[in-house]
Amino acid sequence: MRAILCKEYGPAEKLVIEDIECPAPTGNQVKVKVKAAGLNFPDTLIIEGKYQIKPEMPFSPGGEMAGEVIAVGDKVTRFKAGDRVIGMTGYGAFAEEMLVEENRLLPLAEGMSDEEGAAFTMVYGTSYHALKQRANIQPGESLLVLGASGGVGLAAVELGKAMGAHVIAAASTDAKLQVAKEAGADELLNYSNTDKPLKDMIKEMTGGKGVDVIYDPVGGDFTEQALRAMAWNGRHLIIGFAAGEIPKIPANLTLLKSCSVVGVFWGAFTQKEPQNHVQNMKELFQMHSDGKIKPKVSEVFAFEDYVNALAALSGRTATGKVVLKVSD
Description:
alpha/beta, 15 strands
């Protein structure tokens, strides 16, 4: 089988496609024919050695996939050959076949394409865990989504609306904001507008109160600016640092606003609280079935075009999700 391999840390141009063998599954392993792989920001970090997970080389990047079960190990009870599945793999999905632990897989929802399935788990799983368990967001509360046109940001916009929040979508261009508007955002904020500080724009949109929940996958300078516009008892959700800089937050802001800065590590949540994760996914599949959420797959790249696919993420030009078509 073909696999995209990282043999040395560096940009996507250093990755190579080679033929390798995928061994037979044993124990709780499931062998999956990968149909599509979703691209996420950690994929751009793991190949450069900048992610918290550092697999032994050579390895295939790709932490999210949809495919079909080929074979199962002797301890597998939930899947059989021919089942359509989606899974969070950490890495390894940029390959035509892979071994996945049974507990990392879920059945692909009825009516969901392989491309949608590959674009579903991480962004909706992260955003739902953030808003449900970490923020405990309530109907009628205001939600500011930074980076609202990206994968997790767009999912947060959709879920915020589905959960009854008043959603303010923030992004760097009007074109990106239009995507967020189509996903259900109530108000739009272009933070490339330098006429006013971000905190002043947020406060104006909330009648001076400030925002109840901030969903922040961006980091950089935007984190402190948004935190300064936090409402009393607000919750600032730290999702990631797409801007490339980990901000240093003045601790006095949390005191003055009686607000919380809350970390969201969804990958660890799925392992430490598997029952809650499975329940979240059931609820998300139901929302998808009800038409409340729908993955926006903006681009599907051919397997051989992985460099451009990863560039769409690292260059922050993508809206919604980017997917790699791995096999038919």
